[in-house]
Amino acid sequence: MSKVTIPGLEDKDRYDDYTELLVQKDQLQKEALSYQIAYTQEFGELICANFELKIQCIKVKKSISYCRRRLNRGLAVDPVKMDEEIEREMKAYYLQRDELQADYAQAKKAGMTDGITYMRAKKIYRRLAKLLHPDINGKTEQDAELSDLWNRIVAAYMRNDAQKLEELEVLAKHRLEELGADSFEKDYSNLEERIEEVEREIDIIISTEPYTYKEILEDEEKIKELRNTLQAEHDDFEQYLATLKQALEEMMKEEASKVIWLTN
Questions:
Q1: Host H or E run for residue 208
Q2: From start to end of 133-198, where are the E strands?
Q3: Nearest to 27 by CA among 202, 251, 224
Q4: CA angle at 71 for the pair 69 and 72, rounded to the nearest 5°
Q5: DSSP string for 105-117
Q6: In the chain, where are the structural domains located?
Q7: Alpha-carbon Rg of the chain, whole angstroms?
Q8: pLDDT over 70 (residue 225)
Q9: What does pTM read for this prediction?
């Protein structure tokens, strides 16, 4: 890539467009995160409850399958060994359940940000992004301290922590001065390709979850509809679980004469 040291006016304008697109992409990613949190706050309890019921259904189905295999072979059913085998097979489901519950717990703790703080954080971040965004200033990735500062800036921005952003802005400018990099050489090469790439990334963000949760969260009827759907799913899981438990119990009764239950 070649760098144009004295760009024309059009290059400067397109570079400004590129910079604004990068900031816009970051803003949309932040909004997507906020929609994810709001969605989890609204529906997380039901989602977690439904997944727990799903796990129980899977576990009972595995119990039925295990017993049937043993019975068909005329073998005794050892409850301890059965539980050990099924628990090993269920680990991935338990991990997913724990992640869902952790996400819900974290979302419940997330507070609301007032408009003034939100706008102040956004304004400070915009200034910092134009100085330190890795796609704008190559020194950010080259210098460990700048890289660390940028990561902390992004984290503070996602939390709408305007006070922390103000502190980080002072540190960032000080580090840039130490490096003699308060101004930096701008890379004007392949601008159109880079702009197109960011535009594609923006299109993906706004057309996929969690950003598209916005359509549900801003419509009371859609919120009610999804809540009803999740509740219906919950009821279906409860009924299915009861059916599975009954099937397991009946199977064991029917085959009781063929089974020796091993106990301690």
A1: none
A2: none
A3: 202
A4: 65
A5: HHHHHPPP--HHH
A6: 9-111+191-258
A7: 28
A8: yes
A9: 0.83
